[in-house]
Every structure is written in structure tokens, then in C-alpha cells.
Amino acid sequence: MSSAFDPKIYDIPDADIAWCPGCGNFGIINELKTALAQLQLDPTQVVLVSGIGQAAKMPQYVKANMFNGLHGRSLPAAVAIKMVNPNLVVIAESGDGCTYGEGGNHFIHTIRKNPDITNIVHDNQIYGLTKGQASPTTARGQVTTLQFDGVMVDPFNPIAVAVALDASFVARSFSGNFQLTVELIKMAIKHKGYALIDILQPCVTFNKVNTYQWYRENTYLLPDSYDPTDRQAAFKIATDNSKLALGVIYVNPNKPVYEEQLAPYENDKTPVALRGLEV
Amino acid sequence: MEKKSEISIVLSGAAGQGIQAVEHILTRVAKDSGFHVFATKEYMSRVRGGNNSTEIRISSQPVKAYVDRIDILVPLNDNAIERLRSRITDETLILGEKRYVEKEKNSIGLMLEEIAESFGNKIYENSVAIGVLAGIINADENALVNNIRAYFLKKSEEVVKANINAALKGYEIGKSLGLKFEITPSEEVKKQYLLNGSEAVAKGAIAGGCNFISSYPMSPATTVFTELSRLSRQHGILVDQAEDEIAAANMAIAAWYAGARAMVSTSGGGFALMTEAISLSGMIETPIVVHLGQRPGPATGLPTRTEQGDLNLVLYAGHGDFPRIIYAPGNLCEAYELGARAFNMADKYQVPVFVLTDQYFLDSFYNVDEMPQAKIERYIIKTDENYKRYALTDDGISPRGIPGYGKGLVRVDSDEHDEYGHITESAEVRRKMVEKRLKKMEKILQDAVPPKLFGSEDYKYLIVTWGSTQLIVREALERLGKKDVAMLHFSQVYPVPPIAENYFKKAEKIIFLEQNAIGQFANLIKLTFDGVDTRRRILKYDGFPFSVEQVVEAISKEVE
């Protein structure tokens, strides 16, 4: 690979960053910029699509195209953008509440469609923006600013759901592991089809359970010998919550890519967006 | 006995009995014979059974509206008559299978099934019936044969032949009945097209450059979605059946953002889920075109019926203040023109644009000439390094770029934002941006489609209509034949064209005619202009369209 870009080209110099000191999002933003730089992606070719929440503010601080839409709706927007202009690198980025709660139906059906987009989910197992309520991934029993008697429902398991839906690329990372996260983001972008990376990240203000230390103690790296194309093995990994696996958990390389099957691209690969424009 | 130059045929039967096939074939036989045709259907919300009907008017003169009158009623089963009892008069002839009609006093019973069986199968009975009706109106025999053939094209030659022969036998019977209808053919009509509201909206959208549709099926708006899907390969349209209306609307906006010309097709209940996206469109100044086929609410309401009850819904949908445009075509030509215009205006002003139709409009068709040429107006610019998506301009319109076209970055944000699209909480920037978005209304008003006046300029009484009631009221006024009654029809209902005030001022008495329970448009006029008397309202909200006769009666009560 030739020399990478400088990650600084994605900086927005005067950005007024709204995250708390120590927030896991700082790790993820550096990991994302590094991955984009290593892939030598021009900012004009990248679209960051997000919903609402602290994670969804990410595109505000990254110099690229941005579609910062509504809560829960990053995926439908990302799918449409990719359909209209398949030449763009489309990254949908939001939190666990936005993606798995408000956007749960879109999560399911986007996986079914399998558009060639990357879905980065900042999973801090809590609602940050709205100040500390339970998210879909908060552990049962955890006391929050709203669930005074502890959470009374089981957490949503995005990895298991994605494997059950035969998603074409499913990975989990931890924001505190820089190298791993950069590698997984690069793999996800390069993957042809829908790619999910659930990135575990601490919320230093509202989640006193899932801390940096907690994640270090409760995660492990999948060994090189692990075969991510084995769906049964992936299910086992996805449903084992005693320790959380990090790495590429499942890959199905044989799924047709959604936008490539659409009628306008049958005999003409020119993006619909650019047809009729002077290029 | 004087011969009649027009006939109103009503077919009635259960879902799945082939009413639609009869409608499809007979209307084409009539049109190809050079007769003017109008057809509309009403149906229950079920796949099989129940009771549905189709009205087909065939005439020497153009016909484009629903009437109560039934000249010939064709029941396709034994309980197909009762529901239409209130529309049956001494003048109505009931014609059909002997055992269904023999109890009726003015009836002709035929052995349709028996005739069909003589050609090999009972299921050819509808072809026999089509033949009988074609014979009654003295349709062109070739038109009958060709249209039967075309309809059964995918079947075996044996089946095609049997249906043709069954129809020809019916044709012979129909002619021999000696009924009093004589419709004069016209060469011009033979060259025309049969088009329904759905096709007009869809073709108009394509003429306006629509190349993306994301929707969730919902009656009565699905037909527009289907039409665009059917034509997707031919016209390069990206089609997505979304998981829900929320996704559909957000996709359409994001598609515009990326450079497509996108629409959604839905009805009131589906649109209810899209309201958050309308507000997004307003904030990020990224267009969306919404076709909303109205049906009666609240909630699930009457799923297969008609109403003009969603004007307030689209007028007020979405939190916050931002401009929008609402069209409501009154005829097929307007549906086509406004279908195209919606895309041009959406692109020009970067606002949500609505096309309001309803079940009656979408399911009604008549013969039309070739549609006028619509041109695609595109407003996308190629960006440079210093591009600012929300640049403040004199008219409030910021040049719109798309990602990957030029050297600039296109950054849109649902939060309040500065010129670059960056989130802001500055009171000054907020004020400027609110004013910028609303300033677009000035130019939008200059582009308003003016209301059309039908009838004498020298009116005393002004009937005010919008959307699908146009042709019904026009025919009613022709029947009334009063020189001092005119009709003002709005195909752009919002923003209300300012010129409308002049028409209101001239009237001694203004009567609003709407298909909803409160007079939503009358209320909007009251809000828009000071001193317009909007108290007189003719309202209908039972799920069935206004008929010409009902309108004649209602207007007669209002005018001396």
C-alpha cells in the first residue's frame, strides 16, 4: 500500500466538540480519521450519515460530506445515498440508542437489503445525550437516572441479531483498542455489502458500570484460527455474554449487494445522481 | 322513441368475479370504437367477496365525472343489486344472468353461463357479458375482438379463441335487444388514450425527472408506486419498498441530498409517520415530493373509499416554521403537469412539495389527448472548495450542491446550523436562518399556479372547489345552465395564490364544496384573506364521491 494521507486532512479546526473529557467518542473519531487516511479516501468521496445522540455528532467534527438527519434514521438515509450514488463511500454512524432502539426496524431491514455501506455503532450501553437513561444494550439490573429500581428487561444483542439476519459483515471492537478499531473500520469500508461494527465505548459521565477497566476485563480478541464464515460458530460467539469477543465475528461473502441489483444499473454503472450532469 | 347519446353502465359483484376485467376490456372497446368514456370504481376493503361496483359512462360527448344515474345495471351475482337499490329508478334496466335478475321488474335475463359453457367453459361468461354490452352500444366489432385478444394474450390460443367467440355471441345478442342507445363515434377519440389518475400522476412525475421512489404500500396510493416500479427499467428509476413510511420519507430526502429527484406515494395514515421527515426537509432545505392519495380517516377509516380530508394534515405536518407547496390536481392533465411541476419546484425552492389526490381521482379514467410536454428544470450546482451549503442570499435560496460533484463538501444538519451546516446555538445565526428559510415564500408565491374560473366572468354566485371535485362540479354547472353561477377551482391550495382574492371580492355569495366534514380549505381561505365570507359550505364525508346530481341539487338550494 502506498503512503497514507495525513489524518489531519479530516480535521475541522474550529470545531466546538461537545463530548465530555475522557469520552470514548474521542478514541473513535481518531480511529475513524486514521482508517480513512490509510485508505486514502478523499473527503469529497465520503459521506458520513448520522442520527441524533452524542455519537451522531461525529460527522460534525470530521471534514467530509455530512448528512446529520433524524434520531434513528441514519440507515434509511445511508441506503438511499448509496443507491443514488454508488461511487460514494457511505458510513452510517450513530449510537446504540439511535441504531438499535429508535432505528431498530431500519437495522433489521437494512441488513436484509445488504447495501454496500458501513455501519459504525458507538455502543456505550447508556443514553448520554438525554442524561443517563437505559439504552437497548444496558444490562438487566443496572440502576440508571430513570430506572431507579434497575433495568427490568434483557439487553438487545446486536451481534446475534445481525448473524441471525445473515448480515454480510459483523464485527465488534472496543474504542480503547486503537489498532484493532482502525483495522476493523478499514475492513468494513472495503467489504462489499453491509458491514456492522459495534464499537464498545465508555460513557464516563453516565455509565459507571461499563468503564474502560470493565471493557478491558470483559472482552477478548478472537484468535487468528477463528473462521468468521462459520455461521454456527459465530452464533456461539455472539450469544456468549460471559466475555465479549472482539474482531470479525461473521462474514458472508456471497450476499448480493442491494444497489447493484437495481434496474437503472443493469446496463449503465453511471450513478443516477450524475446522469444528465456535466461531469 | 328517442335514442340516447349517452349510457351509464354499472357492473356490480363480489371481489374476484372479474369486474375489473370487464371494466378494462369494455372501456377500451368503447374508446377504440370512437366513443367518449369515463369509468370509476368503488370497492370494499377485501380480496374476495363483498360487493364492489364500477360505473362506465359511454357517450357521444366528453364525459369525465361520476353520476348516480344507472341506465343498465349488470349484477354478477345474486346479491349484487341490493346495495345499489337507492340508485335504481324506473329508467334502470337490469341485465344479466337470468337467475340474478328475474325478480326485478325492468330486467332482461340472459343465459350467460350456459352460452359460455357452449364455448367450453363457464368462466367465459364475462366475455359474453362484455359482448352483450358492446352490442347494446353498437361498438366496433374489430375493437371488441382486438381487445379481448389483447387481454387474454398470455393464455393459450384455444382460450383466446373461445373468449372471442363467446364475446361475439354476446355481441349478436346485445345488438338484437334493440335498446334505445345511439352513440356517435369520433375519429379523434380513437387516437386518444385512456388514462387514470394514478397513471397521470406517475407519468407526470417521470416527465418531471423523477428517478427515485421509496414507499410503503397503502391504498389508494399504491397504484402510483406500482406504476413507477413498472416503468423503472425504461426510465432509470430507483425503486425501494421501504420497511415503513418513516424509512421511505427519510430515504426520499437523502436521495435528493445525493442528487436524485425522489418521491414517496402514501395515504393519510402512512403520511402520519412521515411528518418528522417533512420537518427534516424543511430544516436541511433538502426537497421531498409527496404524493398523498387521500382516503377517509381518522385512523384506518374507510381504507378503500374517498375523501379530501388530509389538507390540514399536509398543511401543518412537521414541527417548526418552514415553507411548503401543496398541489391538488382537478383533472388528468393537471395531474400530469403538477406531477412534473412538483419536482421542478422542489428542486428550485428546496422545500417539501405535496400532490394531493384521492381514491376517486386515482381510480377514475377517461380518454385524453397526448399529454403536454413537461420540461425538467434542474438546479444542482457543481461545488468549489469554499462551498457553503447554507450560504445566506437575498432570496433565501442557497445554491444546492451534491456530494461527489465538485470540490466542495455538502454538509446538511437537522440541528440549527450556520452557513457551513455546522451545529450552532447562536441566537443571531438562528434568527438569520429562520428568516432565510421563510424568505423563500416570496418567490414561491410568484410561482403560484393561479385558480381557474369556469363559467361566466359575470357571476353572482361563486362555487369554490379544489382537487378532484373539479370535473364533477363543472358538469353539474353545465346542467344547471345558470349564467350567474361560476366555479373557481384551486389546483394549488397552498400557498393560496394571492390573485384569488379578486375573485372572492366579486362574488355576492361564495359557496365552498369539499369532501370533508369541516371545510378545511374554506378555513384556510378564511385564514388567508380578511373579510371573505366562508360560512356556506357543501360538505360530504360518507366515503363516496360527490355525484353530478348531488352537486346540482346542493347548488340549486344555494342559488336562486
TrEMBL record, chain A:
Residues 55-199 form the Thiamine pyrophosphate enzyme TPP-binding domain. The keyword Magnesium applies. GO terms for biological process: cellular respiration. Residues 203-266 form the Pyruvate ferredoxin oxidoreductase beta subunit C-terminal domain. Its cofactor is [4Fe-4S] cluster; Mg(2+); thiamine diphosphate. InterPro entries: 2-oxoacid:Fd_oxidoreductase, OFOB, PFO_beta_C, THDP-binding, TPP_enzyme_TPP-bd. One of its GO terms (molecular function) is thiamine pyrophosphate binding. The keyword Transport does not apply. Keywords: Iron, Iron-sulfur, Magnesium, Metal-binding, Oxidoreductase, Thiamine pyrophosphate. PANTHER family: 2-OXOGLUTARATE OXIDOREDUCTASE SUBUNIT KORB, 2-OXOGLUTARATE OXIDOREDUCTASE SUBUNIT KORB-RELATED. This is Thiamine pyrophosphate-dependent enzyme. It comes from Fervidobacterium islandicum.
UniProtKB/TrEMBL annotation, chain B:
Keywords: Oxidoreductase. SUPFAM superfamilies: Pyruvate-ferredoxin oxidoreductase, PFOR, domain III (SSF53323), Thiamin diphosphate-binding fold (THDP-binding) (SSF52518), TK C-terminal domain-like (SSF52922). Residues 203-436 form the Pyruvate flavodoxin/ferredoxin oxidoreductase pyrimidine binding domain. The keyword Oxidoreductase applies. It comes from the Bacteria. Residues 15-172 form the Pyruvate/ketoisovalerate oxidoreductase catalytic domain. Pfam families: POR, POR_N. This is 2-oxoacid:acceptor oxidoreductase subunit alpha. It comes from Fervidobacterium changbaicum. The lineage of its organism: Bacteria, Thermotogati, Thermotogota, Thermotogae, Thermotogales.
